[in-house]
Design goal:
The chain has about 400 residues and is of the alpha+beta class. It folds into four domains: about 1-55, no CATH class; about 75-160, Beta Barrel (Thrombin, subunit H), CATH 2.40.10; about 185-280, Trypsin-like serine proteases (Thrombin, subunit H), CATH 2.40.10.10; about 290-395, PDZ domain (Pdz3 Domain). The chain contains seven helices and 25 strands. Strands 4-5-6-9-8-7 form a six-stranded antiparallel barrel. Strand 11 (about 195-210) and strand 12 (about 215-220) form a beta hairpin.
């Protein structure tokens, strides 16, 4: 009797097991990346009577090394990225002053609530004025009123501050050794879509002009999708460190909508560090300058002009009472044309500053980023065929002067 009961119990248990597992059969599928375990699950229809078989993953998805790094960068950087909403004044069709809202991005610099963004994100429609109201939203959806404590329209940078706790500062890298082809990430709020990350590479390092028309040296060109709302957000390297501030996008002039065309620009973080140093020391921007208007020289131009070196920066003119003029450097004394561009030749050819070779204006910008107004640098130059050296005490930068 006992044996019969055991047999009946085993039969019931076995039947239950068969019924519950026969529609979920594990299958091993070979793929280029290795075996993939999936399960077939059959859904029966009460109405049509036909069954539907689904093939489902048997385990949690696995990520490749690139995906893992993308996820790591996002998790590391997102807490420091903020959304910025600014309310400015604008004229409507009837010439009435009305409030107008704009959106951008920024990133947290320290636990004291300092935030870096673009000047144009918080600028008023009226020149020289900041937005009337600025609101910062952190990644955890908390909102704070912000105030502008420093601005540099020339480099399109602004420093904000909020009163908040438990902030996650971004990690800043250097931008002087960036290489074309290097992978980059942009995180921001394009079109108000908070916490969006896009990826790409560094497409070029080149000089551009800010929205105010001033030159920005060593700007980072990238094909990472940057759209309205990304402005002021961080451009990151593969370690999640900030290498630039997303600022400009190139758009198709035939399109009415401002959107990514695969060409975006970021202000190098080294430029931002120099500006922040000025804010800290002077309370305003005081960028150092040689006080020259210059022309980069390559082998072809050097041969045409009969210069003593194949590379360098030719001094076209010196700023009156500027650093270069006080140190005895000379500008050009003859007018010439480079295509349609009028230039001045016959001036000194700068080839080295403080032991660093100078081949273009970007090299001068790199040197200036390492110094402050009043510092003294050693300038090596050619005057005709004669190689000379002089000490230059740096002055304060003026528009169109290096």
């Amino acid at each position: 009797m006992t044996f019969r009961r055991i047999v009946i119990i085993l039969f019931i248990v076995g039947g239950f097991w068969y019924l519950t597992t026969r529609n979920n059969r594990p299958i091993i599928i070979s793929t280029p990346s290795g075996p993939l375990s999936v399960v077939e699950r059959t859904l029966k229809s009460e109405s049509s009577g036909s069954a539907l078989t689904l093939t489902e993953a048997h385990a949690a998805p696995e990520y490749d090394s690139e995906e893992m790094n993308n996820i790591s960068v996002y998790k590391k950087a997102l807490p420091s990225v903020v959304n910025i909403t600014s309310t400015t004044q604008a004229m409507n069709f009837f010439f009435q002053v009305v409030p107008q809202q704009g959106q951008g991005s920024g990133f947290i610099l320290d636990k004291q609530g300092h935030i870096l963004t673009n000047f144009h994100v918080v600028a008023s429609s009226y020149p020289g004025q900041a937005a009337q109201q600025i609101e910062v939203t952190t990644s955890d959806k908390h909102r704070f009123k912000a105030r502008v404590i420093g601005s540099d329209p020339t480099h399109d940078l602004a420093l904000l501050q909020i009163d908040a706790q438990n902030l996650a500062p971004a990690v800043l890298a250097d931008s002087r050794d960036l290489i074309v082809g290097q992978k980059v990430y942009a995180i921001g709020n394009p079109f108000g879509l908070t916490g969006t990350m896009t990826t790409g590479i560094i497409s070029a390092i080149r000089s551009i002009h800010s929205p105010q028309g001033a030159p920005i040296e060593n700007a980072i060109q990238t094909d990472a999708a940057i759209n309205p709302g990304n402005s002021g957000g961080p451009l990151l390297n593969s370690r999640g460190e900030v290498i630039g501030i997303n600022s400009l996008i190139a758009t198709n002039p035939n399109e009415n909508v401002e959107q990514s065309a695969g060409i975006g620009f970021a202000i190098p973080i080294d430029t931002a560090k120099a500006v922040l140093g000025d804010f800290q020391k002077y309370g305003r921007v005081r960028r150092p300058s040689l006080g020259i208007v210059s022309l980069p020289i390559g082998p072809d131009l050097a041969e045409q002009m009969g210069l003593a070196a194949e590379y360098g920066v030719l001094v076209q003119r010196t700023v009156p009472d500027g650093a270069a003029e006080r140190a005895g450097l000379r500008g050009g004394n003859q007018t010439a044309y480079l295509g349609q561009l009028q230039i001045y030749i016959g001036g000194d050819l700068i080839v080295n500053i403080d032991g660093q070779d100078v081949t273009n204006t970007q090299d001068i910008s790199d040197v200036m980023n390492k110094h402050q107004v009043g510092d003294t640098v050693t300038v090596t130059f050619y005057r005709g065929r004669k190689k000379m050296t002089t000490q230059v005490t740096l002055g304060e930068a003026h528009e169109r002067a290096a």
